[in-house]
Design goal:
CATH topology of one domain: Chloramphenicol Acetyltransferase
CATH superfamily of one domain: Nonribosomal peptide synthetase, condensation domain
Low-confidence stretches: 3-9
Largest sheet: 6 strands, mixed
Structural class: alpha/beta
Shape: globular
Strand content: 15-25%
Helix content: 25-40%
Mean pLDDT: 77
Length: 295
């Protein structure tokens, strides 16, 4: 299926969009040590922080609904806010990883397949000038929504497109220091299994000598009713205190998001909800104000 996708050009519109994103990437972040590479898997270290079960429930069931966004949008917003203040710039470039089982083709049934599918693609996310949390979420959500086919075309263009000569720029341009991956709700994944539960979140094990591809890897998962965020880093690049501060700031931004959610009356409207209208967020808010509708 994937091979035919590349040959038939079903992701053809992705070409210019993804090449444009590749050219704009400059994903380097501050480092505590001047090292030329990201180190190896055997040298890496990690810390994990969590939201409480109550906070996790509010994030999933209240904030996502009231703020008109999905959980990955909310997590990405908090992450960009965290890294932006650290790096001193509004635009943060990172690699986004997802499960790869996207429902973007008609007639493709993955229910009888097993194994780990992966979509990996670069994004450059920029915070708006406004300090309003809702505006930040709406902006990040719109930027993620603009990625064609949820990033699936990136890998196809990079490895399978018969016209791939110019697409070597995709691989060359990937220079992000950060990988972000939201694994979803593992509790929900096994909720229908009789008498079965996960003893711990699923971890990907790699050879100790394998080279790391990123300076920071942030992996989030809902397990045992709590959101766990694991920050994996290389001690050859960063001291533990730096990563702990980043992880704590990330939780602070998430909790501020939950506080702002309580002030929201009704569902927040985002320009990403009306893709055919070609409206900016400011234009949508002006239109809603003219109609007397809450924003």
């Amino acid at each position: 299926m994937v091979g035919s996708t590349g040959k038939l050009g079903r992701v053809g519109p992705d070409r210019n969009a993804l090449l444009g994103k590749g050219r704009s990437l400059d994903g380097h972040l501050p480092r505590d040590y001047d090292c030329t590479d990201f180190g190896s898997r055997g040298d890496e270290d990690r810390i994990t922080v969590e939201l409480s079960a109550e906070e996790t429930s509010k994030l999933i069931h209240e904030a996502a609904g009231k703020l008109g966004a999905q959980v990955p949008d909310l997590l990405a917003t908090a992450l960009v806010q965290t890294l932006s203040s650290w790096a001193g710039r509004k635009k943060i470039c990172m690699d986004f990883e997802s499960h790869g089982r996207e429902e973007i083709f008609d007639g493709v049934d993955l229910s009888r397949t097993v194994g780990w599918f992966t979509t990996l693609y670069p994004v450059a996310l920029e915070l708006p000038d406004s300090e309003d949390t809702r505006a930040a979420i709406a902006s990040i959500r719109a930027q993620l929504s603009s990625v064609p086919n949820r990033g699936l075309g990136y890998g196809v263009l990079q490895y399978l497109d018969e016209r791939s000569a110019p697409c070597h720029r995709l691989a060359e341009a990937r220079s992000s220091d950060v990988l972000f991956h939201y694994l979803g709700r593992w509790d929900e994944a096994v909720s229908g299994s009789q008498g079965l539960r996960l003893a711990e979140p699923i971890r990907v094990y790699r050879a100790p000598k394998q080279a790391r591809d990123h300076a920071l890897e942030i992996v989030a998962v809902v397990f045992d009713r709590q959101l766990h965020i694991e920050w994996t880093y290389s001690p050859t690049l960063h001291v533990k205190a730096t990563i702990e501060q980043l992880a704590d700031k990330f939780l602070t931004h998430l909790r501020r998001l939950l506080q702002d959610c309580r002030k929201q009356e009704g569902q927040y409207r985002s320009a990403a909800d009306f893709p055919l209208a070609d409206l900016s967020q400011e234009g949508l808010e002006d239109l809603l104000a003219d109609l007397g509708e809450p924003g």
